[in-house]
Design goal:
Layout lengths: L11 H17 L12 H10 L6 H25 L20 H14 L3 H22 L2 H4 L12 H12 L4 H21 L6 H21 L11 H8 L18
């Protein structure tokens, strides 16, 4: 697009948005460190001369290759790994929990897993896994439905106790024992990936991410086809869920009448 003779195929005004678009697309693809030392032809010309490429076509080509080839290699790597790095999808035909905040957490988890490149990045995926579980705990647990008489409400970060009670309330008999073990194992795995820092592997991060995505859908499934509003005041339901029905309808007859 820019030759040593000054001949160009596009203008300076066109070059700026083209390079800007390349940077934006790269960032969305998980390559956040692409920042070329020029932004349009004038600054490229200065960079080209300052680095001794004046008068040499080969030198200018090598200079551009050194900047653009690593980006191309990273994008090729992302494309090649996209199949093996894809996280689990729920089996439900709805493809969504319908719970406020959960889908946003899932989107962030998938994005961070796709862009992870180091063990520290994989450990941060563990942070996302823990945040997904805490979001499920906040939405699924209602103290007036799941709490034990005479005991205070567990904090939202106490996901094991809160989700234990959700499972116990939804499932009766020996079934809930196995399901509680599943919940506890998912929580323990997410915490381990989060805290291992420099020793976390991509396989562990992906397995934990798969697990919490499916855990969220499992918890949603055992709630049945209505939002968890049993024993809640109608005004509180509106405060939490708004006036949208999301994916599942609200059973208003299960709410306590406002006084």
């Amino acid at each position: 697009m820019f030759g040593t003779s000054g001949n160009v195929d596009i203008s300076d005004d066109q070059a700026r948005p083209i390079l800007g678009s390349l940077g934006s697309v790269s960032a969305r693809s998980g390559v956040a460190d692409f920042n070329p030392p020029f932004h349009y032809f004038v600054t490229f010309g200065r960079y080209w001369r300052r680095n001794g490429a004046s008068g040499s076509w080969q030198a200018s080509r090598e200079m551009l290759d050194s900047i653009l080839e690593p980006l191309q290699a990273r994008l090729d790597e992302i494309e090649a790994g996209s199949i093996t790095s894809t996280l689990a999808q729920a089996i439900s035909p709805r493809r969504s929990t319908g719970w406020p905040g959960i889908e946003e957490e899932h989107v962030a988890l998938r994005r961070h897993f796709e862009s992870a490149r180091t063990q520290q990045d994989d450990s941060k995926v563990g942070n996302d896994c823990v945040e997904v579980i805490e979001a499920v705990s906040r939405v699924a647990y209602y103290h007036n439905r799941h709490g034990k008489a005479g005991q205070p409400e567990p904090p939202s970060g106490n996901t094991k106790d809160r989700l234990d009670r959700v499972v116990e309330e939804a499932l009766v008999g020996s079934t809930n024992a196995e399901m509680r073990k599943l919940v506890r194992a998912a929580i323990a795995m997410a915490q381990a990936v989060k805290h291992r820092r420099s020793t976390t592997t991509r396989t562990e991060a992906g397995a934990s991410a798969d697990t919490v995505i499916l855990l969220a859908n499992f918890i949603r499934r055992i709630h049945g086809d209505q939002l968890c509003v049993h024993g809640m005041r109608a005004a509180d339901v509106l405060k939490v869920f708004g006036r949208r029905s999301y994916v599942y309808p609200v059973r208003w007859d299960r709410c306590i009448a406002d006084s």
